[in-house]
From TrEMBL:
Signal sequence annotation: 1-22
Protein name in UniProt: Extracellular solute-binding protein
Keyword list, A-Z: Signal
Cited SUPFAM superfamilies: Periplasmic binding protein-like II
Keyword Thylakoid: no
Source organism per UniProt: Frigidibacter albus
InterPro entries reported in the protein's UniProt record: Bact_solute-bd_prot1
């Protein structure tokens, strides 16, 4: 009943009235102006004109967004974007999930409006943001140097952390591991010394919900792992783009991961168990260590307190690598390929960029992050605080925000205060621990290709990545030997066009960031 009442309150048809001062401060046009929008994102194939957030923004700015999303019958955002572009009749605003590549490809050809001068002349809040973060402005630019979209900009630094069963360490008389060698000793003890006390050798020392996290272990041997985004697999080393899966350090890491797997220290179902692994292995008192998100992982101590006696699953500092380097490779990416752009058919680009700028004002940012003041949150001692019915709902806070039009893939600057309110004390303590130790490594923000460079990438990279992942899994599972296979592996990569891809990556990188 509580959730139903909240949903009705959030989605009710009563008018939402912004304070008069806010209306006056943010009004863009005297007469209401309608702008059409394509907004295709994972949780909604379209833009809901009844979002409370939209209605409040409409009252403050006098701009009214009208949904004209293409491909509403598809959940594939790329397919929807391709359909929209094929139609040629673009709405005023094109936004949603992963629009960067399409916008930066077709922007220089005239499909989208360059925003550089518009930002400089009419968007003081967006300009102020990028003046403080010029590297992000470089990152969103197309190959011609122009910016064609305003991105969704996440907030906060740390996302994932290393976790260990402190209760198991205490039971076995072990300290938290500080090096890769000590981590091996801990995992070995978890496997051999029955810390769950059931008399069975059923403990899973290291597990992960995403198999990519097991590859992150290569960092313990001075390698680099890989993210899941198209360009974030790559990294910059001494001014040159490289890919981790072609480096000697990666070979050493995979060799050791294969050894750990053979010794039973890594979940034997790491490649197949999937998203349920954390729920299952912790609730059954089987899992010992992982690398996962702060906010969600720390919540298990409370969630399972009646099921697993003494469960104390806590973050610990990354083990130092073989050369003594302590690093956290995963971070909250500061810029997403999501956001929105102004199409060439828009007859009101100045008013539109002013509307985009509204979301970077203090009031607009609060609206985009928390919903409508008085509806889902209140200002308490100068801080936005969610109402108790939001925080105590059985529905996750972010899911509630999506329903009201907050936290969606428009071009806006996220506010970490939105998440910190529902993050456990253990997670907050872990974040503070990581923050104090300066563990993050520089993030590669991607490149924008010319049409010719994109053709090279598209011709070679999909098959190269498939081959890399096939060999990676085979080596870990023991159906190949990475040391014996390495020369053949690198030769095959080069025959498949690996160096051609690296060359266009470096060409694009030096043009964009040089």
């Amino acid at each position: 009943m509580r959730n139903l009442t909240l949903t009705l309150a959030i989605l009710g048809t009563t008018a939402l009235t912004a304070p008069a001062w806010a209306q006056d401060a943010h009004k863009i046009v005297d007469e209401p102006l309608e702008l059409t929008i394509h907004m295709h994102w994972p949780r909604s194939q379209g833009y809901d004109e009844t979002y409370p957030v939209e209605r409040a923004a409409r009252e403050m700015t006098n701009i009214h967004l009208i949904d004209r999303t293409a491909g509403k019958n598809s959940t594939d955002h790329n397919e929807a974007m391709n359909l929209l572009l094929a139609q040629g009749d673009l709405p005023d605003i094109v936004g949603g999930n992963r629009i960067k590549d399409a916008v930066n490809q077709y922007g220089p050809e005239g499909a989208f409006v360059p925003l550089n001068d518009l930002i400089e002349e009419h968007a003081p809040n967006i300009k102020a943001f990028f003046d403080e973060r010029p590297e992000l402005f470089q990152a969103i630019a197309s190959w011609d140097g122009n910016v064609y979209y305003i991105p969704y900009l996440p907030d906060g630094k740390f996302g994932r952390a290393w976790y260990v069963r402190q209760d198991w360490l205490d039971k076995l008389g072990l300290e938290q591991p500080t090096t890769v060698e000590e981590y091996y000793t801990v995992l070995k003890a978890f496997r051999e010394q029955d810390p769950n006390g059931n008399g069975k050798k059923d403990e899973i020392p290291f597990f992960a919900r995403q198999w990519e996290e097991v590859i992150r272990l290569v960092t313990l041997w001075d390698g680099r792992s890989s993210g899941s985004d198209t360009y974030h697999d790559f990294f910059v080393d001494e001014g040159e783009i490289r890919h981790p899966y072609a480096q000697v350090e990666y070979r050493e890491g995979i060799k050791n991961i294969a050894q750990w797997y053979a010794e039973g220290l890594i979940d034997p179902e790491i490649f197949t168990r999937g998203a349920s692994s954390r729920d299952y292995l912790l609730s059954e008192n089987l899992g010992g260590s992982t690398h996962d998100w702060f906010a969600s992982t720390s919540g298990y101590n409370v969630a399972l307190q009646d099921r697993v006696e003494g469960l104390n699953f806590i973050p610990f500092l990354p083990p130092a690598s073989v050369s003594g380097v302590r690093m956290e490779e995963h971070r909250r990416i500061p810029i997403k390929p999501d956001g929105w752009a102004i199409s060439y058919m828009n007859e009101n680009p100045v008013e539109t960029i002013k509307y985009f700028d509204f979301w970077f004002t203090e009031e607009g940012r609060l609206l985009a992050n928390f919903g409508v003041e008085g509806e889902t949150w209140d200002m308490v001692d100068g801080e936005p605080v969610y109402k108790p019915e939001v925080l105590n709902s059985d529905s996750p806070v972010n899911s509630q925000m999506y329903l009201v039009g907050a936290q969606i893939q428009r071009g806006y600057w996220q506010d970490y205060r939105y998440e910190i309110q529902w993050t456990s004390e253990e997670a907050l303590a872990g974040i503070e621990l990581y923050e104090a130790n300066d563990l993050l490594i520089p993030d590669f923000l991607g490149v924008s290709f010319t049409k010719e460079e994109q053709a090279v990438y598209d011709r070679h990279w999909p098959s190269i990545m498939t081959y890399m992942l096939e060999r990676q899994q085979a080596w870990i599972l023991g159906t190949g030997d990475v040391e014996a296979d390495w020369d053949s592996y690198t030769n095959t990569l080069n025959k498949m066009g690996y160096q051609d891809v690296i060359d266009v990556m470096n060409s694009a990188y030096k043009r964009q960031y040089g």
